[in-house]
């Protein structure tokens, strides 16, 4: 059986697409092996997949930082350099060795941009590399630049010729800065594995040697741009939706709450920002009361659901089952949560906490599907006023339904798996085309 390694590091928004693609690859006859963080191995195995630890879990990172969970999350959310310096770079030497061991007899490595060991191992073993880009902004297109605080200097879409030149200059400046800071650390690991120095010019991007680069999001959310490489395919959101890794259903208390009244507003901060939520959920509950609406608050953890009046609090609920029953979804803007909200066809309010979440919120606003709100401005009164606009202006709901029907027909995991299989078969010279289903109906 054709063994293929899939590797990532990050939150559930990073892990779930990998699991979905791995399951789709297995249906095509591959033997997928997930190389992930220590604290994500159990979930992968519960999904019925082989999995090995090659990266530290969050508790190990937090322990090395000498911080509590809340403090560590706040620091990582507040400064993107911290993610590089405290999580990704320290793990590079050991993760490279671990990944090389598991990839010895693999046909290819499928990786997100943040596993810096993957290109090194693929080059050393002489096997193809497939890059996954989980968010549109990470394509770094001069035509469709990121809309985040770190990229506030960019010229926004629609971009003129001069604007595109400026955006390319910014990207190249950013690459040069990353190269200066991290090239020696990257090249030390490369040298240990007998590879020539390459530096770190494109450290946070799809690797330039990739056989294939897959945008794992909807083409409605981020389309192909003229400056994207010819090996890029945008396949749709690969959907896997489980807390434990096994098949899920709604908790009976949640199902009863949904059946007992009008559709609620769902509030969630995903699987990472929820660990330093502060007053978010109390303000959310108060906002729902000001609006005279019911609400479900996904507060993290494993606690049983509790109901107080029109407010239900629970740790987690499968988004694919809960979101379609919502009246609106208020969330942090993570890639996975945004994709699920799009598929559900519901208006959204994005409260971004870091990086790509700001860009996702901008895209949702641009598409006419919702609004954004700064996390430090999230109070009951302000949130209620903003959410009320989603209900008062029916265009948000109507457009969300229209786009939702289109996104729900996309088969991101299957399209990604078939693109990977096709690319590998072409390289081997025994390509027989699959009967394809279009990524977009």
From TrEMBL:
<dbReference type="InterPro" id="IPR004276">
    <property type="entry name" value="GlycoTrans_28_N"/>
</dbReference>
<dbReference type="InterPro" id="IPR050426">
    <property type="entry name" value="Glycosyltransferase_28"/>
</dbReference>
<protein>
    <submittedName>
        <fullName>Glycosyltransferase</fullName>
    </submittedName>
</protein>
<dbReference type="Pfam" id="PF03033">
    <property type="entry name" value="Glyco_transf_28"/>
</dbReference>
<dbReference type="Pfam" id="PF06722">
    <property type="entry name" value="EryCIII-like_C"/>
</dbReference>
<feature type="domain" description="Glycosyltransferase family 28 N-terminal">
    <location>
        <begin position="4"/>
        <end position="131"/>
    </location>
</feature>
<feature type="domain" description="Erythromycin biosynthesis protein CIII-like C-terminal">
    <location>
        <begin position="311"/>
        <end position="405"/>
    </location>
</feature>
<dbReference type="InterPro" id="IPR010610">
    <property type="entry name" value="EryCIII-like_C"/>
</dbReference>
<dbReference type="InterPro" id="IPR002213">
    <property type="entry name" value="UDP_glucos_trans"/>
</dbReference>
